[in-house]
Write a structure and sequence with these properties.
Helix content of chain B: over 70%
Helix content of chain A: over 70%
Largest sheet of chain B: none
Number of strands of chain A: 0
Largest interface: A-B, 106 and 116 residues
Strand content of chain A: under 5%
Oligomer: heterodimer
């Protein structure tokens, strides 16, 4: 890894052109358009911004988007850890296939996931008709939103935990066992603390993705005002009414949340790599 | 977003299950496997199966009829065009950014890496909105564009722009950690021996990163062809003109043409499966070449 540098002179060529192109392209595609959202949202005064960003229907959408995303990420945290554990530690038939298909939500277009989940959980669908017998509606309720967010979030947890679990040496667990610790005690006090940064990172990634998710949710949500409208849908709704002030205000709120989450995720990743290098 | 290339260790049984210190009781193992695989089956396998059964519910004839439709063809064409522009652009950017970040030292490097990641954490809907705010009728350049009769929003350029944004980090994200881990000794040796920058890149760097590069490209391509939210905002849903495949699925579905919607969706699901197969192949090849070196 270590490399010598000849004083302050750069040995490898290409610094200036790659720096120039990278910054130019980054600004053109990402930075300037993002700045547009903030400039536009501040252009109509704070009162107009605040009124648009906190209207009751929008507030209800925040509650649903953040609540369902949090719950979905928590559920994925639990099952994602179990799945990662099974894939790393156990042998079972079809393991390679399971390992490969974990990434399906990354690769499957969100609209496809959306209509497939709706077909399954609608009152006349395979799963939905079973629950309909007990008067439980899944599709077109907040429960449907939750299911879609679980689908898209699962790989984030598995794929952040799995490599850490694979790299984990068995010596620590052996030491714990030789000192007489039960398996659960070892897991609780030896394995879990090692996995903690990865679990938190995966959780934050799944949460961040879920908050902004659109395609897989809108089909199954039913989009009932005050009940099952997610925040990204509110932006679309405002745009369709040519309410640019409203759309931009909500977008600015979402962007601020994304930035805070991104900072948090970066901090977590720095923490877990420090943890990794100490051992 | 990107699960970096990782190489699974070979035998779980020998390593963990034959070792009393890392072994769970059969009851615990069985419970965990049942929970994990049950969750996997319900949440991942079932939706995938649903796409294909719904698509074929009315038989193969209806299936092929819905695919051999003029609007489906134009949607396929537009999806291919958007990917054919977005993927090479982001490939060049990924190579440039990773060469800059992995092979050079400069201030603000960490900030730059974070900024490159930004599009992953921006909601696709917000991504689409940004371009409406700049190029739309009420946007910064709206009046100027109208005067000169250039359409970006509700037209193909808007769709391409939105696709470029959402797939922006994919290649860079794969290459930066890979090239950082490889260091710069080999490139420095080549340069000292008199190779030009381009020769060094082509003969030394490229062979080292080819699998990671290919991996980034296929992920980038899958997202480019499947993007829905961002494209939906800028497209205007004009049939035959600004409909990509995912948007076409939505229109068919909202018109209650379920068999046709799922038939088109099954094409996209196949694309996803092919992507996963290629990904498996790349991981296998990459593990082969590491094994050879070791």
């Amino acid at each position: 890894m270590a490399s010598f540098s000849l004083g302050r002179r750069r040995v490898l060529p290409g610094f200036a052109p790659t720096l120039g192109f990278t910054l130019f392209y980054l600004s053109l595609i990402v930075l300037v358009p993002l700045a547009a959202v903030f400039l536009k949202s501040s252009g109509h005064g704070f009162d107009a911004f605040w009124a648009a960003a906190t209207s009751p229907r929008v507030m209800a959408s925040y509650k649903l988007s953040f609540g369902a995303s949090l719950l979905a990420a928590l559920i994925n945290l639990f099952f994602g850890l179990i799945l990662a554990w099974c894939i790393v530690r156990y042998e079972f038939p079809g393991k390679k296939l399971v390992d490969a298909l974990i990434d399906l939500p990354f690769a499957l277009p969100t609209a496809v996931a959306g209509i497939a989940l709706t077909a399954l959980y609608a009152p006349n669908g395979w799963v939905g008709s079973f629950f309909a017998k007990y008067d439980i509606k899944i599709a077109f309720t907040p429960l449907g939103v939750l299911l879609a967010l679980i689908f898209i979030g699962l790989p984030f947890i598995v794929r952040t935990v799995q490599p850490v679990l694979e790299d984990m040496e068995t010596e620590l667990e052996e030491a714990a066992a030789s000192l007489g610790a039960q398996r659960w005690t070892t897991f609780r006090y030896v394995v879990l603390p090692t996995l903690l940064p990865a679990l938190l990172t995966g959780f934050a990634l799944a949460f961040a993705r879920a908050v902004g998710e659109y395609g897989s949710v809108i089909f199954i949500a039913g989009n009932i005002p005050m009940v099952s409208e997610i925040t990204p849908l509110m932006i679309i709704a405002k745009l369709e009414q040519y309410d640019y002030v409203g759309a931009t205000a909500i977008a600015a709120v979402m962007l601020i949340v994304s930035f805070v989450l991104l900072l948090g995720i970066n901090g977590l990743q720095a923490w877990s790599s420090r943890r990794g290098s100490k051992r | 977003m990107s699960a970096a290339l990782h190489l699974a260790p070979a035998r779980a049984r020998a390593k963990y299950q034959d070792n009393p210190a890392t072994r769970e009781s059969p009851a615990v193992r069985f419970t965990l496997l049942a929970l994990g695989l049950g969750f996997f089956a319900i949440f991942l396998v079932l939706p995938l199966v649903a796409v294909f059964t719904e698509a074929l519910r009315k038989g193969w004839e209806v299936y092929f009829a819905s695919l051999a439709d003029e609007e489906t063809f134009s949607a396929i064409k537009l999806t291919l065009i958007a990917a054919a522009i977005a993927v090479p652009l982001n490939l060049v950017f990924g190579l440039s950014a990773s060469w800059l970040i992995a092979k050079h030292e400069f201030r603000g490097k960490q900030l730059l890496i974070t900024l490159i990641d930004l599009p992953f954490s921006v909601s696709p809907v917000v991504a689409g909105l940004m371009y409406v705010l700049i190029f739309g009728a009420q946007g910064w350049f709206g009046p100027w564009l109208q005067e000169h009769d250039v359409k970006i929003i509700f037209a193909v350029p808007g769709i391409v722009l939105a696709t470029v944004f959402v797939t922006f980090p994919f290649v860079a994200r794969e290459l930066i950690p890979l090239m950082q881990a490889q260091g710069r000794d080999e490139e420095e040796a080549a340069t000292v021996l008199g190779a030009s920058g381009w020769q060094t890149f082509r003969r030394v760097t490229l062979p080292n990163i080819k699998w990671g590069l290919l991996y980034g490209v296929i992920l980038c391509n899958a997202r480019a062809m499947g993007e829905f939210g961002a494209v939906s905002v800028v497209s205007g849903h004009i049939r035959g003109l600004t409909n990509t495949l995912p948007l076409h699925v939505e229109i068919l579905y909202n018109e209650y043409q379920f068999a046709a919607a799922f038939a088109v969706a099954s094409l996209l699901a196949l694309l996803a499966l092919v992507t996963l197969v290629i990904k498996q192949f790349i991981e296998w090849r990459a593990s082969q070449s590491t094994a050879k070196e070791a």
